[in-house]
Automatic annotation (TrEMBL):
Domain YlxR: 10-82
Coiled coil spans: none
The gene coding this protein: ylxR
Top-level taxon: Bacteria
Protein name: YlxR domain-containing protein
InterPro entries in the record: YlxR, YlxR-like_sf, YlxR_dom
Organism: Weizmannia acidilactici
Name of a matching Pfam family: YlxR
Length: 97
């Protein structure tokens, strides 16, 4: 009898949707207070998950959701960095197909 592997689910802080962890982008705050994108999902620190779509990122920016979840101030330029990361990842995935 084949057992199905459990897929880890995470909740998007902006939209509230539950999605598989691989479809989410983890944003992490280190002990030093540095905010960064965690593509591996394994960096240590306080993390928040965002859906990999522009609407979720723009909603998080508009409502300042990441700052409240991570407990740190987040500059507008960081949201631009997130959008660039998502677009780059989409291009790479298209090239693989």
């Amino acid at each position: 009898m084949a057992t199905r592997k459990k897929i880890p689910m995470r909740k998007c802080v902006a939209t509230g949707e539950m999605k598989p962890k691989k479809e989410m982008l983890r944003i992490v705050r280190s002990k030093e207070g540095e905010i960064s994108i965690d593509p591996t999902g394994k960096k240590s620190g306080r993390g928040a998950y965002l859906s990999k779509d522009e609407e979720a990122v723009l909603l998080a920016k508009k409502k300042n959701i990441l700052a409240s979840h991570l407990g740190a101030a987040i500059e507008d330029s960081f949201y631009d960095e997130i959008l660039a990361f998502i677009q780059k990842e989409k291009k790479e995935n298209k090239q693989k197909l």
